[in-house]
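User: Run a structure prediction on this.
Assistant: Running it now.
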Amino acid sequence: MLTYQLKKQPGLPLYEALYRCIRSDILSGRLKAGEKLPSKRALAENLEVSKITVEAAYSQLLSEGYISAREKVGYFVEQVAAETATAAPIQPVPEVQKAPILDLTANGSAGFPFSVWSRLQRQVLLDYQQKLLLPLHNQGCAELRCAIAAHLAGFRDMRVDPENIIIGAGTDFLYNLLIQLLGRDKVYAVEDPGYDKIRLIYAAGGVRCVSASMDREGVIPQALSQAQVLHISPSHHFPTGLVTSLRRRRELLNWADNAGGFIIEDDYDSEFRFHARPMPALQTMDRQGRVIYMNTFSKSLAPSIRISYMILPPALMEEFRERLGFYSCTVASFEQYTLARFISGGYFEKHINRMRKFYRARRDRVASALERCPLAEKMTILEADAGLHFLVKVDTKASDAELTKLWAQAGIRVRTLGSYYHEKAPRTEGVCLVVNYSGLDEEELCRLEKVQITI
């Protein structure tokens, strides 16, 4: 049985520490190719961690090709390149790796409006001075909440009372507030496939998560029999790019009404739709106060702009004030006042329009590079109308793990659609890659056109 001394470290999730330990043992040769790994439950019990921690570590190892999964059998160590298997350190050590030629999993932050942002910061310092040192309203400054409400009215046709908006330092913080507000006794359903971190946040918050399976119209209501809370991204699902149909939205609202449940609408990435306006937010269809709207400025501005917000239905807002009103706002007043002026001055809308054109051109350039690379005849771009990623279907007999390893050997980091499934991924012909293109520059794209991979 694998035994590691896992210690919590600032900025390092427990699953990441476990992933590094197992990866180190594979690279050192302590874990041999073909060796069967312990079951998720057995390893979790042995290490005294949650099963979801082991699942996340195994998922990361699987997506990077270090291990493979065999249906109804378990997980097995894959063969690694000989040059990485020669060293045999006893303890996990920081790994020094050759930087990949390309990372098709990373996000970028091109086009940040530094000159405008710095000018507004100077204005805020001059105009607010002493006010910047005073405590803020626990929901965030009124100027920013009003600016967000006005922006949503124009961009998403949402009629929002600024008094129902809560500002927080990242959606992680807001999700943890929701767990306390809605209750740890509830069952939370999350999309499958879906963003790994959402499930980890809920699990770390002490709530039970179940997978909500999907079809071409969105989350299947019949999959929600155990749940009281549903977390979805109906405007642009990650990683499939699916937009939830109008009919399915009505069905999910009916589910929430009948179950007395709530829907957390994650509108992340909704700003970047290239050929049409996004569908109206689910929140605009809600008549019974069942939808909690969530969004962030991390994608539209920069990952380091840790400003997110949620909009609670009026009744839930009252409950928040009564039970959780003691929490302080976690975003600095200086950043809030600056962002408020950035939005109300029309700069945010201009920035979004400029970045939409930029990313449309970047997406087309990435698609062109893929069409020119030696693998072009085996690849088909599937969904590329919205968001900063798209799917590429690869015609191959290789498994997800094998294809990931082949790309890695060519210096390219990729993730497959199958690696985002919590439950067993459906059988399909070929393998789908999830291509995040916002972080690629022209030099990297030229290299992509020349990459040699045999599949």
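The first helix runs from residue 14 to 28.
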